[in-house]
Design brief:
Blueprint: H1 4-17, E1 24-34, E2 37-44, E3 50-55, E4 60-66, E5 68-70, E6 77-81, E7 84-93, E8 96-103, E9 109-114, E10 117-123, H2 138-143, E11 151-156, E12 163-167, E13 175-177, E14 182-183, E15 186-192, E16 195-200, E17 203-208
Parallel strand pairs: 1-5
Antiparallel strand pairs: 1-2, 2-10, 3-4, 4-8, 6-7, 7-8, 9-10, 11-12, 12-13, 14-15, 15-16, 16-17
């Protein structure tokens, strides 16, 4: 009776070896768009081991799926969506499925798992692209332009003191300002017939009148 146990275990090992895991079946291939480009989605019954390679002449991505079975289309799929020209596949040899993604040009790519099997991401992944300008902070300058400086439109010399008519930043029309008033983040120091001098945190700013005729002209 004690000898029956090894025999039973031996039969269990033989039965397990006789039924290996079924191959991963490639049943469908489809194209999906994302912000940075397109993706080729491979629907698989299981996630197999794989190898991929980018080859030129013409540019194409070759993916070999190991321990896999081909259950997809027998004819190439003509896509015509840049950068994909055509997708074709076959049972390359026993246990190996080969998928070829023919491209219109060379593009970066990555192969990654997804809920249905594998996904080949072509082009930049969906993400926020860096600003195209090489100058640091250029994008921020475009989004938040520097406020325009105060605009001097006229000066009136009065006995009680000169008055400068200035369009302040963000204002729709000119207002009258005297020495000591604040405008555009600065304080008016002087007003004369030629212009205004403002004292600002970054230094003195001079506002000149826009004279259309040179001095002395009639």
């Amino acid at each position: 009776m004690p000898r029956a146990l090894p025999v039973t275990l031996g039969l269990l090992v033989i039965a397990t070896a006789a039924h290996p895991a079924p191959p991963a079946e490639l049943s469908d291939v489809r194209l999906a768009r994302h912000d940075g480009g397109v993706s080729v989605e491979l629907r698989l019954s299981a996630l197999p081991r794989y190898q991929s390679e980018l080859i030129d002449g013409p540019w194409r991505i070759v993916i070999d799926l190991e321990e896999a079975a081909y259950r997809w289309a027998s004819r190439p799929l003509v896509v015509g969506v840049d950068p994909v020209r055509e997708i074709r596949g076959s049972q390359y040899r026993k246990g190996i499925v080969r998928l070829v993604i023919e491209l219109t040009r060379r593009v970066p790519y990555s192969v990654e798992p997804w809920v249905g099997g594998l996904r080949v991401v072509l082009g930049a992944p969906p993400s926020t692209a860096p600003p195209s300008s090489a100058v640091p902070g250029a994008a921020a300058t475009r989004q938040h332009p520097r406020p325009r400086p105060p605009e001097l439109q006229g000066v009136v010399l009065r006995d009680g003191g000169p008055v400068a008519y200035i369009v302040a930043p963000g204002a729709a029309r000119a207002e009258g300002y005297r020495v000591g008033d604040t405008v555009g983040g600065g304080v008016i120091e002087t007003i004369d017939e030629h212009g205004v001098v403002l004292r600002t945190p970054s230094g003195r700013m001079e506002l000149r009148l826009d004279v259309s005729k040179p001095p002395g002209a009639r």
